[in-house]
Amino acid sequence: MLVERNGRAATQASLLIFVGLLALAWEPPTWAQSTSLYDQGRAAFAAHHWEDAASLMARAAEHDSSSSDALLFEGKALANLERFPEADAALTRYSQLHPNSPEALFMLGFVQQRENKPRESLTTYTAAARLATPRGDDLKIVGLDYVLLNDYPDAVHWLEKAVEFEPGNADAWYSLGRCYYTQSSFRDAERAFQKVLALEAKNVKAAENLALAYDAENRPADADRVFAMAVTLARETPHTDEWPYLNYGGFLLDHDRAAEAVPILQQAVAIAPKCVACHEKLGRALGVTGSTKSGIAELEEAATLSPDEARLHYELGLAYRTAGMVNRAKAEFATSEKLYGAKSKEPQ
After folding, report:
1. Of 18, 72, 220, 257, which one has the greatest count of Cβ atoms within 10 A?
2. Is residue 307 part of a domain?
3. Which CB contacts under 8 angstroms, 24+ apart, belong to 340-348?
């Protein structure tokens, strides 16, 4: 019994020592060591701990929102968290208390753009520009406001101003290139995307869009080379989307290179299983290469994901007919015809 008690006591002592060592080893975050909520919030913000910064600044603002910039930093932290309606509320409150703060107004304009409120954003940027000279990034957001308003001439104007102010702003060059491309100014788009790649050699989106511009200019060799480069860059990127693969696969399919397109489009489907266009193009490529059953399965998945798309039912009908599945083909053609008819009756 004595041995058992001694053993138990020793175990408890060891546990206490272990817990004590853990307590000594753990240190609170740097911002938690500050005395005031505001100082803690600033330290958390500087460390890019947005959740902590937003929470601490909200609490600091409750104590004295008029005499500090707690609301401003709360809004910035919330914007970094992409909690834009909350950021809008914090920045609006701060701007009402500090109407001569261009920093708050420029930030609020950015947030409003991300909320898909372009008119409000433009009004806010106009007010901010009366107080301070906009930066290239600010002019970029103004341009993107006009994109949301489907006003591409004005979008191009402000994005050109943005890159004039900041020639090294890769994001502004990319947005400008997209606007040029949408306006069918493919040569200008080409130059803009080349500029992005000169600034950021591994920019996947710039590479794939440059390839799209080459394709639109009927330069297939250049398009092929740059599409392949975009896919290579995408494979080196931890978090990529399906677009480099989908665009290159579609290009190969359109240029009668379906066998090369199949593995590229399979990668697109693997990345985005719910991508209708990925399944559709892969289905077409598989059908062309003789993998009829697999091709039908992909087209069926596309039609399931987007059941109201008439074109998909028509393509599926063609695949069924090729496979000798006459009744299924007729059913899909009938569905396609019905959907096309319904679309033709939709109000313009």
Report:
1. 72
2. no
3. 340/310, 343/310
